[in-house]
Amino acid sequence: QRCLSLIKSTKFLNAYITVAEETALKQAEESEKRYKRGQPLGVLDGIPIAVKDNFNTAGIETTCASNMLKGYISPYNATVVQKLLDQGAVLLGKTNLDEFAMGSGSTDGVFGPVRNPWSYSRQYKEKSVPKSHSEDKDSNWVITGGSSGGSAAAVSSFTCFAALGSDTGGSTRNPAAHCGVVGLKPTYGLISRHGLIPLVNSMDVPGILTRCVDDAAVVLGSLAGHDPKDSTTIQDNFKPFELSDLTDVSKLSIGIPKEYHAPGLSSEILALWSKAADLFKNAGAKVIEVSLPHTRYSIVCYHVLCTAEVASNMARFDGLEYGHRSDMNKSTESMYAATRREGFNDVVRGRILSGNYFLLKQNYENYFIKAQKVRRLIANDFVKVFGSGVDILLTPTTLSDAIPYMEFIKEDNRTRSAQDDILTQAANMAGLPAINVPTALSERGLPVGLQFIGRSFQEKQLLTVAKWFEKQVKFPMIQLDEHNGNLKQISKP
């Protein structure tokens, strides 16, 4: 009930697209009965969670923040949603995103942009002085990052305890960094994608957003493992683990990839990154500079592979089986065209167009095949580094802290995504597990996170190290002081 009332009082954040109040209360009542009988279904029984609106949920609308799926109610649950419900978790609602998860700001969905809860925090307000009196104090709110911005904002504003995102090029870790929460992208194939509406099948992974590393491990334990409905999941059984406290880091080897000192990286984040490396060094870990030479081709390579898979995936939205259908009835052809023009925004249409261009017979070898080869080189860079004895890589998650919405929308989605994915994207190409850990507040009073990348399927080691780091940095709690009206500043859209 507290979560539901907080969702109402933080409605201006626009974190949720659909709130499933009735079913949530029903689930909570059932859970309470189980606890009274002393038979909870699992560790997550009764825990309020939120799910990004590109996971299918039976009986609750799934829109992908697009006109194409407005009003679409799936007949089945995504595997991850089903697993959460089987554990007794309470599904509060579906969270906002960039349309079809294409973007890095959570600003491009048809339901409007998500606002970063830190915009209304004491920490940010104390530091941000309006440039002039005339400047509307409501216009300097900052973005959440994307594309899982709704889920990150929901966890960060205490309206739920954990949320699902998806991560194709950084869509869970990027908003986690901007909203000061933990964002885990597991190894590709560890968690089922069945029922996650696909963006790039070969890179998509359901992501986990929580307020601390331990919670991420708990949720991972409930979701991981083989799914007969997703042939890309691992065959082995996954044993849930509890994270032990790391007391001795002297056996650890931490790699610092020099290519991640990317153009546009803020001096503030660079300093934090060095400080974090020193933290490990001073605690006795071995910290070495490593090279991932093909990182610089990663973004162009990703652009080709991403748009090609998008072009193929979006073909299913033709106005026939489900979703929006245009009234244009001159011919089937014109109905298709009109449906897709009305249903998709410019970003999605642009990616479909470039993807089909790269897949044309005369371009296929030069673009798609070449990009596949470069992807293999990128993955091999990681194999070499981890083969040389490095356990974990430490990198920044984002180039800077969150920027004001007004500034963000000055650039188009493609430019923004290319800039913002640069530090997170290679882990998706290589299918490796990676996690954002909130590290400190910037000079502007906004969260900054660092990223740890682990070896394939070594989530336990990755999370153990992340937990040690989390304990050292003592990231401050967001101060959303309801009494001074912060959360009452509900602005008209």
TrEMBL record:
A GO BP entry: mitochondrial translation
Domain annotation Amidase: ranges: 9-463
Highest taxon above the source species: Eukaryota
Species whose genome carries this gene: Athene cunicularia (Burrowing owl)
Gene behind this protein: QRSL1
Key words, A-Z: ATP-binding, Ligase, Mitochondrion, Nucleotide-binding, Protein biosynthesis
Protein name from the UniProt record: Glutamyl-tRNA(Gln) amidotransferase subunit A, mitochondrial
Summary of the function given for this chain in its UniProt record: Allows the formation of correctly charged Gln-tRNA(Gln) through the transamidation of misacylated Glu-tRNA(Gln) in the mitochondria. The reaction takes place in the presence of glutamine and ATP through an activated gamma-phospho-Glu-tRNA(Gln).
Location in or out of the cell: Mitochondrion
InterPro entries given in the database record: Amidase, Amidase_dom, AS_sf, GatA
GO molecular function: ATP binding; glutaminyl-tRNA synthase (glutamine-hydrolyzing) activity
Pfam family, one: Amidase
Any one Gene Ontology cellular component term annotated for this protein: mitochondrion
Reaction(s) catalysed (UniProt annotation): L-glutamyl-tRNA(Gln) + L-glutamine + ATP + H2O = L-glutaminyl-tRNA(Gln) + L-glutamate + ADP + phosphate + H(+)
Record carries keyword Electron transport: no
Family: Belongs to the amidase family. GatA subfamily.
Residues forming the catalytic site: 52, 147, 171
